[in-house]
Amino acid sequence: MNVTLVFVLFSLLFLGAPVFAESPCLECFKVAQEELKQCLDHAISQEDKKSCAEKQEAQAKICENGECKLERDIRDTRNEVLPKKK
Prior knowledge:
Layout: H1 2-16, H2 24-42, H3 46-65, H4 67-81
């Protein structure tokens, strides 16, 4: 009886817990931010820091035009497929 109760409780815990997966868009921005941090840690001059910032801006633009655009397109497609409530 106790084993069954424990099994049921653990099953509910694992099945009931939401799984939060980060989106590819958010992950892309996090990677770009981490690369900026590493670049700034190794930067010596102001020019190096400026170069780091420019690289991060370029990476963010790539994210925006790549993974983020893809996510928006998928989300828009899902919204079009679902019937709208009146």
